Amino acid sequence: MSAPALSAVRAADLIGPARGEGPAYQVVADALRLLIADGRIAVGTRLPSERDLTAALGLSRTTVSSAYAVLRERGYLTSRRGSGSVASLPAGVVRRDTGLHLSPHVPEGAIDLTCAAQRAPAGMTQAAEAAIASSPDYLSGSGYHVEGVPELRRAIAEHYTERGLPTTADEVLVTTGAVVGTAIAARALLSPGDTVVMETPTYPNIFPTLRQLRARIAAVPVEPDGWDVPTMTSTIRAAGAKAAFLLPDFHNPTGNLMSDEQRVEVAKALRHSRTTAIVDETVVEIALDHEGPMPLPFGAHHRDTVSVGSASKSHWGGLRIGWLRAPEHLHERLHAARVPLDIGAPVIDQLVLLHLMRASPGITQERRSLLVESRDALIAALRARCPELRFVVPRGGLSLWVELPEPVALEVTLAAEDEGLLFADGPRFAAAGGLDRWIRLPYVLGPDELTEAVERLARALTTVADGSSARRRGTRRPPRGPLVA
Fold it and tell me: pLDDT at position 473, please?
């Protein structure tokens, strides 16, 4: 049987523009390697000839020949008589499912939608090599950069300034991811028993820190189509809270984007109540089809704001690099809260992110287009197979917040597990209970996988509606691990 073939036009679409630091052949080779490793180009697929790919990419024949040579040397391309150049994996590499499984007990063949995060971008290997090459400058010291590598702090500060919030490197603290950064901010600002204003639903990985601090939560609802600002501001004024935890930029899980006018009103209430804002901006770069300029960072409206950023959504979660942007008068408290949790992010990872940010501070247009394609495929499948479900199409972010006809999120989640589909139910995002009508469905996998996921969801919904689920309402929920992203 002959090998399946990939057309030059399709290969060029998958590779995208050959942008990035370093020679063009390396960029092309890195893009193809990631496509093969991710399974988007299946092992055994015949790649287009060098001549055809040269024409499709608009590059020189030497560039494509050199890229293929790199792939052959690394084991991602083999030559077969009669089949040309065929995608392969290096010897010793085991093909793994690419469903972003984060649970250690994901059944084989399951589709895991518990994680709203993307795979590594093209250019990652190139950035890692550049980071290693630049690392000798840092080897003479201890390796502990408690505030972060200076060049990365400057790059992050410059990006805030470009977004409309003038920032210096002294206002930036690099952390080991956004979850740690948020925990540092909460510990710096809250004492045991303090009140914190929180949206509901919200990103749930702040909950363990708040429980440890015995914080009292004043919850404000986020509706499917946005914030009820009058209710939010009245809650802030009445709560006497030390801090407010907010996600105004493509809110996780709803995908809502708070306007500048709304930010002004919320900031006014925070100033009146002398409440510091902890603002999660980890999804701010994931604008998909948002029209017009983005709103200013929340910190531009409220000086006492600790902004939490991360490379996990814009670049890759495997880097484990986040940051805090805060006014300098808060830094002493942040440093004191940090040391018990995180005494410095890995230097090499910081340098990798520095090289990636120099190429693109946020997601590339290619990755944005892939997300739009996946989102639209998920929406089309839901409308065709599960028309009883309701949702608002987000202009950005990484997930749909989906309303069920009945408050049966637990039952649907368990029935979906029986169908080989994993996702997070609404109560996991609840700051004050409830949300039993809701589930979160990220669109970070490919269109075909998401279409199959909806088929499994449809079967689960039918099972629950028929009352034939093996695990009924009132069933004790099995122990669950943390919701990672």
Answer: 45
